[in-house]
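Hey team,

Filing this mostly as a record. A colleague (T.K.) asked me to run one chain through the structure pipeline before their review meeting, and I want the input and output archived in the tracker in case anyone asks later how it was produced. No errors, nothing strange. Just documentation.

Input sequence:
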Amino acid sequence: MFAGVSVLVMTAGLSACSSSSDTSDGSSKGSGGNTTIDVWLMRDSVSAAFQNEFVKGFEAAHPDIKVKVQIQEWDGIGEKVTAALASNDAPDVIETGNTQVAQFAQSGGLLDLSDKVDDLGGKTWLKGLAEPGAYDGKQYGIPYYAANRVVIYRTDLFKQAGVDASAIKTRDQWIAATKKLNSGGTQGIYLPGQNWYTLSGFIWDEGGDLATQSGGKWKGALDTPAAIRGMQFYEKLQALGKGPKDSDEANPPQADVMAKGKVAQVVSTPGGANVVVQNNPALKGKLGFFPIPGKTAATPGAVFTGGSDLVIPTASTKQDAAYTFIKELTGDTWQKKLALAMSYVPNKTTLASAVASDPGAAAMAVGAAQGHATPNTPGWAAVEAKNPIKDYMTAVLTGGDIQKKAATASEAITAAMNSGS
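Output structure:
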């Protein structure tokens, strides 16, 4: 899902989304009248200006379809969507966090769009959006937009230390540069001990995963040799700064920390740079970006792909019009406009050049090609609810035995993922 990536109190009841509130009487297949579709989009996913531009353009191109957008809050959206899908009162299109699709598809409440993949250009979709949009071999979620982490750095501090950011292409080079930066009152990097999204990328780089599936059962995989190597690299990097070992990037907000002190680097979505400058205008023009380095210069580091997919409820009576809406919004023309308007990564690898003029988004697009998602199963929600990965990271960073702590965390992940089976 987009949690941890977006800079993102439900007030509307489900009845507010009812198709019965439409003033039109046309069907999605057209009956000589207009069709009004209800669309749920998430708070702050796109700007009001972009939303208005798209709706105006869509309705001009499709005069028989009217669009009624309702903005939803991320907080509590899982429960709200679940209730809507189980009712006869669902909206026609829903934006959902990419890793939430499996949870909703499991209930049978989403329309299978597998036969539309080729029509939508699915062969070049970002893997980190497309894979979690599928469940049990069928495609339910259509990739909408992506965002992932990059390195945000202080150009002035790099210059003072004689470090060339453009030359940092591998993990080893990153460590060497960060060691050089970590002196004279400057933190080489501010990396909180529980930034598990960043750890996940290091684990994937090593060929490991957070959990694996066998015989229909999921098993935590933090204790595999590959995952252990990922955690060992995180430990080495985290030590080159003063990040707390027992909290994540939101406690305290790492953008605030970078704004207040001499912090050479943070790992964040590019939008974090805007927050830094808002908190300290003196840093305007002094922040740069580069992709998280990989093990070799040939391949950038793996990243967790956050973002959203678009789905159609099976309860929608206007599925054809809903599909037309999705096809337009996820098509190349509007994806390019969205990327430029929001500094997002477009949903297809072939559209990466659309953000070439935006340094943060361009760095993000490089990493997006190595994007991953969390395990594609409804059971993953139970893992994130308790998040034993965070506890594991703190335990290791405060001196715990890495193998034993990894085994304990893996057992907790296994139990959580299979609790409903």
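Quick notes for T.K.: Residues 132 and 376 are 5 Å apart (CA to CA). The first helix runs from residue 48 to 61.
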